[in-house]
Design goal:
The mean pLDDT is 94. α1 packs parallel to α5 and α5 runs antiparallel to α6. The protein starts with 24 loop residues before the first strand and ends with a helix. A hairpin with a 2-residue loop joins β1 and β2. The protein is mainly α and 170 residues long. The protein is 43% helix and 3% strand.
Length: 170
């Protein structure tokens, strides 16, 4: 649970406060989130390749286009999904639930043209296939983003990429 949203009055028997699991502890409750930040940066969590000029106007999206990614855009980068993820605990090089979720969010955005770049990260050894679908990441998410669903959808996209690359004539 997020400390900033948790009331002590709700815990009459007391509570235990500890640092986020699966992260190196720097001191007391402070953890080193360097890998977390690097994973987010690696998947390029921003609109790529949209070369619209000011005279072309703004990008307009329909509600249906926005609905494809809206659920995955609420991530607040709290790191709880990484702390809950047993796979990240076993393999600290796994890019993790938040990074994969953000990649999926931008891959589904109709304004974005960077899917190919992001899929290289998701298809990598420490990408979507490292996830064993335990689902704790979705259970602990305070914003109900559902990283587990984004990861599974990333696996579908990864499988499509593999099949197309394998079956496409050279």
């Amino acid at each position: 649970k997020l400390a900033c949203k948790t009331f002590l009055r709700d815990y009459t028997d007391g509570m235990k406060v500890e640092a986020l699991a699966n992260f190196p502890i720097e001191r007391d409750l402070v953890v080193d989130m360097t890998h977390f930040i690097e994973s987010l940066e690696a998947i390029k969590p921003y609109i790529i390749g949209n070369a619209r000029t000011a005279d072309q106007g703004t990008n307009i999206q329909t509600p249906a286009q926005m609905a494809k990614y809206h659920q995955f855009s609420g991530c607040i980068n709290c790191g709880l999904c990484y702390a809950a993820c047993p796979q990240f605990g076993l393999n600290p090089e796994f890019i993790g639930p938040a990074a994969i979720t953000l990649a999926h969010r931008y891959n589904e955005d109709s304004r974005d043209h960077g899917k190919k770049e992001r899929m290289a990260q998701l298809n990598s050894q420490n990408g979507v296939w490292s996830c064993t679908f335990v689902g704790y990441c979705s259970e602990v998410c305070p914003k109900h983003v559902d990283p587990a669903a984004a990861i599974q959808q990333g696996k579908v996209e990864s499988s499509k990429d593999f099949l197309i690359a394998t079956l496409k004539p050279r």
